[in-house]
TrEMBL record:
<dbReference type="InterPro" id="IPR045864">
    <property type="entry name" value="aa-tRNA-synth_II/BPL/LPL"/>
</dbReference>
<dbReference type="Pfam" id="PF13393">
    <property type="entry name" value="tRNA-synt_His"/>
</dbReference>
<feature type="binding site">
    <location>
        <position position="296"/>
    </location>
    <ligand>
        <name>L-histidine</name>
    </ligand>
</feature>
<feature type="binding site">
    <location>
        <begin position="102"/>
        <end position="104"/>
    </location>
    <ligand>
        <name>L-histidine</name>
    </ligand>
</feature>
<keyword id="KW-0963">Cytoplasm</keyword>
<dbReference type="InterPro" id="IPR006195">
    <property type="entry name" value="aa-tRNA-synth_II"/>
</dbReference>
<feature type="binding site">
    <location>
        <position position="150"/>
    </location>
    <ligand>
        <name>L-histidine</name>
    </ligand>
</feature>
<dbReference type="InterPro" id="IPR041715">
    <property type="entry name" value="HisRS-like_core"/>
</dbReference>
<dbReference type="Pfam" id="PF03129">
    <property type="entry name" value="HGTP_anticodon"/>
</dbReference>
<feature type="binding site">
    <location>
        <position position="146"/>
    </location>
    <ligand>
        <name>L-histidine</name>
    </ligand>
</feature>
<dbReference type="InterPro" id="IPR033656">
    <property type="entry name" value="HisRS_anticodon"/>
</dbReference>
<protein>
    <recommendedName>
        <fullName>Histidine--tRNA ligase</fullName>
        <ecNumber>6.1.1.21</ecNumber>
    </recommendedName>
</protein>
<dbReference type="GO" id="GO:0004821">
    <property type="term" value="F:histidine-tRNA ligase activity"/>
</dbReference>
<dbReference type="InterPro" id="IPR004516">
    <property type="entry name" value="HisRS/HisZ"/>
</dbReference>
<feature type="domain" description="Aminoacyl-transfer RNA synthetases class-II family profile">
    <location>
        <begin position="1"/>
        <end position="400"/>
    </location>
</feature>
<dbReference type="InterPro" id="IPR004154">
    <property type="entry name" value="Anticodon-bd"/>
</dbReference>
<feature type="binding site">
    <location>
        <position position="132"/>
    </location>
    <ligand>
        <name>L-histidine</name>
    </ligand>
</feature>
Amino acid sequence: MAQKPSIPKGTRDFSPEEVLRRNYIINTLRHNFELFGFQPIETPSFENSSTLMGKYGDEGDRLIFKILNSGDYLSKVSEENYSAKDSNALTSEISEKALRYDLTVPFARYVVQHQNEIEFPFKRYQIQPVWRADRPQKGRFREFFQCDADAVGSQSLLQEVTFVQLYDAVFTDLGLKGTTVKMNNRKILSGLAETIGASDKLIDFTVALDKLDKIGEEGVINEMLSKGITAEAIERVKPIFKVSGSFSDKLSVLNELLADSEIGKQGIEELQYINEKIEALGLKTVTLDLDVTLARGLNYYTGAIFEVSAPKGVQMGSIGGGGRYDDLTGIFGLKDVSGVGISFGLDRIYLVLEELNLFPEQAIKGTRLLFLNFGENEALYCLKAVQSLREAGITAELYPDSAKMKKQMSHADKRNIKFVVLAGTQEMAEGVYTLKDMKTGDQKRLDLQGLIEALA
């Protein structure tokens, strides 16, 4: 009995319609990346294990897919490690390569390896799949695409301004109105921790603060207390729990709280600079908002932090994010190369567009016109027209078999092909084609030029 086919858990097949819709998003991203001066690069789907391991923390290392060495991968295993069943030691002996976990570390490796060929500042974009040995669940897959844009080699805050504009351009083109780019700064968070005498508990403080919208003020306070942050210290930062108003209003609250923190004031100046530039330039559909509780990526972000939320009413996590990092390439020996980067969540953006019914009809660019097949002579007559239509940029095809007309019409209907062409002996004698609209049932008799004009 034949084995029932299947795919690994956490992976997906995509139908033609899904691929076309995903390509619509990807093409929109690619167009805007290039419009903003970002250059495309690609890196291998797998890297040397030494490139990836140790860059994501213990949890990340466990989620990296390792690739077995070719041939007899046990031949070089030490008897001691084999007998001891030491998985960590064995892994390094039987696997020298691994599937990439993200696009950021391979990008850092690329910059260091090609530093003599790159013109800095270097602006790159990358749209490729990544793999994580995670537990599959709704919205979390083991294979998925990342869509990243980064600018390295410049400390100018104009880069951050550009990324806010890039988010605005992409979501405007996708018709996704009401998207919010939430922004904070790592220096603000460091300043707040410093102000309350909890610099040594920065991570505990910010991780708790980041949960404010999920567990509320009381929950945040209880978590901070459990981490050893005093009630007196928490009292001093309570104003940020209820901070509201415009970007400038929130900066005013921070100015008071961080009056004695140099690093905090530096963070405020950076946020103010970016906001002033955005206010002067204007945004089309995206709103820029200061979120003083935003604390993503603390292990590597050193300045601005971004997180993008979907329009209100859509139950979806962040659909994008990023930030400023001061030493991305330091892990490979190239020190002091500052950069800033953002990502777009392709799968989540897809789900939001689908929920809001925002995919335009032209996003699904399938066959527009199917010629019915009534026999050898009629097929040749139709193929000449198909050739001319394709040269005019119109997607058209001929049904390959001279099957019953009902079957051919059903085929067109199931594939959502909008038009069919009937061409029998009478049409051939007159040099015309009968064009039928599958939705309305309307029919027209047109010559080849009229057919092209009707579908152009």
